[in-house]
Description:
Elements: H1 2-17, H2 22-32, E1 55-56, E2 59-60, E3 72-78, H3 83-92, H4 97-109, E4 116-120, H5 125-131, H6 135-147, E5 150-151, E6 155-157, H7 170-177, E7 181-183, E8 192-200, H8 204-215, E9 220-228
Parallel strand pairs: 3-9, 4-5, 4-8, 8-9
Antiparallel strand pairs: 1-2, 6-7
Helix pairs in contact: 4-6
Amino acid sequence: xxxxxxxxxxxxxxxxxxxxxxxxxxxxxxxxxxxxxxxxxxxxxxxxxxxxxxxxxxxxxxxxxxxxxxxxxxxxxxxxxxxxxxxxxxxxxxxxxxxxxxxxxxxxxxxxxxxxxxxxxxxxxxxxxxxxxxxxxxxxxxxxxxxxxxxxxxxxxxxxxxxxxxxxxxxxxxxxxxxxxxxxxxxxxxxxxxxxxxxxxxxxxxxxxxxxxxxxxxxxxxxxxxxxxxxxxxxxxxxxxx
Length: 242
């Protein structure tokens, strides 16, 4: 037992210093039988899984009565076992190889648009310093490379906010990210922007980002997320450190 414990700790140390490679990540996905969701399995307007609400061309029961600022949502799957574990490895266990894997898989699930650019939901510098890397930026770069597009940081997070996943009240979530993002001095007139993030819960963060991109002149903003939290799971989502 002692020897096994030592080897376990050594293994974790190696994983932290030398993150899993793209090949290992791909093998893990194949081993679990995972596959990305296809169009029609989730709402193209808000990203919620189809089983939770009847899907129509105007949205689903969850979002039909709401205005959404983006033109569509693309995802790999629901924020559930498997995909959720990989996201947590990526964000909190230095599993950098997941960035390329998530970005490439997302690029395969999305259509092509002319005059398009890729940008991530920005991470505040304090959180970036504590984590050591910006997971959304890494995913955005991989997505852009697969698409043959340019990835650039169009937005800045000007306020350090609490993790949205730690807040249950919709009103508090809105207030938490209100005026937290600011666009850079870039003219996006006539352009399509692919906005990349890891998890969409209620969408308040994405709304603020899309608003800033619209003010910069973006004609179309497409929201691309690795996973979407379904309505019944929103209140149970927890974050280790955001």
